[in-house]
Amino acid sequence: MPLSSKSPQKISVMLFGAFSNHCLANAIEPFRAANTIAGRQLYQWRIFSLDGGAVTSSSGLTIATDCWSDVRPAGDLLFVMPGYGFKDLAVPITNQALRAAGKRFSTLVGLDMGAWLLAAAGLLDGRKATIHWDEFTSFAETFPDVEAVEDRFVLEADLATCGGASTAMELTLELIKRQHSAMFALEVGALFMHGERPGLHDPYQRMSADTLVRSAAALMRRTIEDPLSIPELARRLNIDQRSLEDRFQCETAMTPLAVYKAIRLREARRLVELTRLSIAEIAERCGYRNTSAMTRAYRLEFGEPPRVHRKLCP
Question: Can you give the residue ranges of the HTH araC/xylS-type domain (predicted)?
């Protein structure tokens, strides 16, 4: 599936003391994984703080940062990531930096308690936003001009907010999906086992299209060697086949069968690149009982047969 041929997206992270390591990793690691899967740099990032130097997380991890005022960064995405003590950070110097950054970045992203700082700077007035649920009521009362919504994340063209570490990864995967494709975002998410197993009591019929597709894709990954029929896949997900197909079409513009095939072929590509398994064994591990059939599908998907691809790998 072709990826965007645009130049790398430029990401800056504005970090504050007592930030969450988990949140930072969940926001950035999917971009790193996207670069790895694509085999080229789709995303670039730098980490800043207002004063530069070492910034210490809530768990004591120290991160080196560049000085915001020295570099005055600009680009596609600005992630604003405060931690504990975030209310004390809403001071004139922070507000000024954020308002100026709003003119230099295409999209502002408030992570964890970042929405609070964006709102304090007047950048969320008249806009929808969310925040870590522990502070949701206080946020709504403090900033009545902001339309506070109880969503896991809010994403618009020039503004995004979310609360907590797990939602940071969801937001990042959605950004990747919108720039490239739903299939590519599923592939990135698979590296983190994102959506691997829903809760035992999650009703599939009431899941959003995105959640259902991630759960279905996780089941597909677990059954690569012996692929399920689409009716059996639907049965295991406790949803009728037509509804499953409709949700895949809505979310990925692909059929479940096409996504299943893409997942199997991407596993084949991973095995071609990272192992010395024979092509016949790779075919079998990826659910192909006929090596020639996999080779034909592989060539159509990636532009060259697996043996040629392997020779080109470093």
Answer: 214-312
CB 195 within 8 A of CB 218: yes
How many Å apart are CA 2 and CA 294, to the nearest integer?
A: 20
Length of the chain measured in residues: 314
State whether the Cα torsion 221-222-224-230 is positive or negative: negative
The amino acid that residue 107 corresponds to is: T
Instruction: Say which amino acid occupies 282.
Output: I
Structural domain span for residue 117: 9-179
Q: What is the pLDDT of residues 213-263, one digit of tens each?
A: 988 998 999 999 999 999 999 999 999 999 999 999 999 999 999 999 999
Contact yes or no for 81/114 (Cβ under 8 A): yes
pTM of this prediction? 0.84
Residues of 250-260 as b/e, b for ≥16 C-beta within 10 angstroms? ebbebebeebb
pLDDT in tens, 98-136: 999 999 999 999 999 999 999 999 999 999 999 998 899
Asked if residue 201 and residue 152 are part of one domain, the reply reads: no
Does any domain span residue 18? yes
Partners of 159 in beta bridges: 108
Q: Which two tokens stand for residue 119?
A: 């709102």
Angle separating helix axes 182-190 and 209-222, nearest 10 degrees: 60
Check which CATH number belongs to the domain holding 123 and give it: 3.40.50.880
C-alpha 278/C-alpha 180 separation (Å) is 31
Q: Which two tokens stand for residue 23?
A: 């949140």
Which sign does the torsion angle of CA 65, 70, 73, 78 carry? positive
Give Cα 306 to chain centroid, integer Å: 28
- Residues 14 and 68: their CA atoms lie apart, in Å, by 8
Residue 188 lies in a domain: no
**Residue 103, SS3?**
coil
Q: Are 100 and 68 in contact (CB under 8 A)?
A: no
Query: Do 119 and 143 meet the contact criterion of CB atoms below 8 Å apart?
Result: yes
